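user: Here is a favour to ask of a fellow structure person. I have my own habits and do not want them to colour yours. Could you put it straight underneath, so I can go through it closely?

assistant:
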Amino acid sequence: MSSIDKVREYLKDRGLDGKIREYPVSSATVELAALAAGVIPARIAKSLTFHGDGCCVMVVAAGDARVNNGKYKQVFGKKPSMLPPDRVLALTGHEVGGVCPFALPDTTVAHLDISLKRFATVFPACGSGNSAIELNMEQLWEASGAVAWVDVCTGWQEVEGASID
């Protein structure tokens, strides 16, 4: 079963599968996803993956936010170390370009960054490099199975709504 099919099945159980958008173009980067969805890049909910203690730590953040080493260390107790692209699929169930906080294995723990809260809705990927779903914060929280809202990103406060990635 493909990653997007796993996500579709996962979101179906939450009544959200009908909201998945599949684009005829790539949405594999923040900029491409924003173009495909017709929104500013900041509204793309990017899923960033890091080495954790025996797990994968996922931080879902606004498209214009950048993880801050000091803030990350305060929350997670260690300096952030991103997963190399060749480990992402094995640890998240999704390939780079389609990584999302849905249908994750037990070894991946999702966290939502507060940079997302300034928007009524955001657009996370749905397991493929040409998909997304528009969700409000409550839907994102529930569908992602996130364990916490965190404050580990910077850049978005200073340049609200602009893409600085």
User: Anything to note?
Assistant: The chain has five helices and ten strands. The beta strands are 20-22, 44-51, 56-62, 66-67, 108-113, 121-124, 131-133, 135-136, 148-150, 153-154. Residues 160-165 have pLDDT under 50 and may be disordered.
